[in-house]
Amino acid sequence: MKIRCIFAVCLVLAATCVSSAKSEETEYYAVFMDGKKIGHAIRSRVTAAEKVTTNQEVSIQVNRADVPTKVVTTETSIETTDGKPLGFKVVQNSGGAAVSISGTVDAQWIMDVTATSMGREQKKTTGWPSGALMDEGLRLLQLEKGLKEGLEYDVKIFNPGGLQAIEAKIHIGPKQNVDLLGRVAALTEVKTIVKTPEGGEISSTNYVDKDLCMQKSVMPMMGTQQMEMIACTKEFALSENDVLELVDKMFLASPEPLNNIESAKSAAYYLKPSGQSTKLMIPSSDNQSVEQLKEGGVIVTVRPADAPAGAKFPYEGKDGNTLEAMKPTRFVQSDYNEIIELAKRAVGETKDAAEAVKKIESFVSGYIENKSLSVGYASAAEVAASKAGDCTEFAVLTAAMCRAVGIPARMVTGLVYTKTFGNKENVFGGHAWVEAYVGDKWIGLDATRAPKGFDAGHIALAIGNGEPADFLNLAATLGQFKIDKVVIDTGKTQDPNL
């Protein structure tokens, strides 16, 4: 399971600087997690020719099972001096070729967008999400609202990855003394609370000076962990990073060994929140039902859906969400020739959708030869070329190949049970897999575990296209609960005399 998406969320949540007296300014930040420096962030803002260009770079490096993983995300926004969007660009490099998305916005609020991966482009034209603000627009709004304690207001933040508006609430807190790497400053607390698609919330806390320039940002990650961005000198921000092993933080203990979970008919997981005020927002699907308990916990019952036989493809329905899961994206390039060719090789002459998705699952399982943790997050086209990666690479290639033959598919992230991983036993670890639409059901596929594939040991926490905003719920939920009890239905009738 990757953390790139969670780090990208931090970039969205961070505040901008309101120091309007300067035509050019640059701030440097050190990025910390678990008390260790793991990277840096750089923000620059330039005003020229009645345009404001804001550039943000976040570079982070962590270890995953002793394998270094580096992720660099650069985001640029171009706006008028009164905050109207003119253009944007996001580039993400996670060890392989960079994936980017850029766009321009005309006077009629129409976006012309280009996504680039492996040197090839995907183009689309769409409308600007109503009310969405980029950096300068948000800066001007914050300047207008001020820093009066107790003030609260709603905003919509433009997410270039998903070409959508993220709804958020900003709350102004008290002024307090904040430690900035040994330097103490009187700063105002500003909380940004983002709504996740599943109805949950994820919050970051920024500490800003009188000019609303961020000096420190704190965001909870995986329950007990926090990621911090602290203003510092250029030299320290760009200095050598510490070594942080992340894999251990991505596991959750099982209350008991789950023997033969791969063949179970269903499994009911009793999830207990780690805090009294924590409200768990877990998605439901054809493979998973969710029951809210009065005390705040939930019962997640995972019952893998059976693919109906005789369903044909390509999909010819009209459901909007299902049609969306047919489209190529910058990470799921189902329209690339090499992806189409791989999908045709996998599917062969079959006309049955259930058989086709299982063939794709099996094909991807054998196609990715280098099960590498060093890949930060690769697109389907990159995986097709490199044949390397871990669960997210298996998932993104599976989803792209399904879409390439006309079968809707979406990516799922969450937890999966494993008996052993390194020195750990009977744990749930961060994982990614796919749901493909067959007939009238979303069917689970897990190429990392083929031929058995998806089973009742999978707990979904977020569903989407693989864009950072799709995984807001994962960032908000992971680490916020423990598994109190598991009830497994083997599908076998028990002898009442036993």
Helix percent band: 10-25%
Shape: globular
Strand fraction: 35-45%
Computed Rg: 23 Å
Low-confidence stretches at least 5 residues in length (pLDDT < 50)? 1-21
Protein structure class: alpha+beta
* N-C termini distance: 42 Å
Give a quick account of the main beta sheet: strands, pairing sense, barrel closure.
14 strands, antiparallel
Structurally, the number of domains stands at: 2
The total strand number stands at 25
If you average the pLDDT, what whole number results?
A: 88
- Looking across the biggest beta sheet, what order are the strands in? 8-7-6-5-4-3-2-1-14-13-12-11-10-9
- Count of DSSP H/I helices: 9
Describe the model.
This protein has helices spanning 4-13, 135-145, 234-237, 320-324, 337-347, 353-367, 380-386, 391-404, 472-477, and strands at residues 24-33, 36-48, 51-64, 67-80, 85-93, 99-105, 110-117, 120-127, 152-159, 164-180, 183-195, 201-208, 214-221, 225-232, 251-253, 266-273, 288-292, 298-302, 370-371, 388-389, 409-421, 424-438, 441-445, 458-464, 481-489. The chain is α+β, with helices and mostly antiparallel strands and 498 residues long. It contains nine helices and 25 strands. The longest helix is centred in the C-terminal third of the chain and has 15 residues, at 353-367.
Task: Give short descriptive properties of this protein.
single chain, about 500 residues, alpha+beta, C8orf32 fold, 14-stranded antiparallel beta sheet, about 45% strand, disordered N terminus
Which helices and strands, and how do they pair?
Layout: H1 4-13, E1 24-33, E2 36-48, E3 51-64, E4 67-80, E5 85-93, E6 99-105, E7 110-117, E8 120-127, H2 135-145, E9 152-159, E10 164-180, E11 183-195, E12 201-208, E13 214-221, E14 225-232, H3 234-237, E15 251-253, E16 266-273, E17 288-292, E18 298-302, H4 320-324, H5 337-347, H6 353-367, E19 370-371, H7 380-386, E20 388-389, H8 391-404, E21 409-421, E22 424-438, E23 441-445, E24 458-464, H9 472-477, E25 481-489
Helix pairs in contact: 5-8, 6-8, 7-8
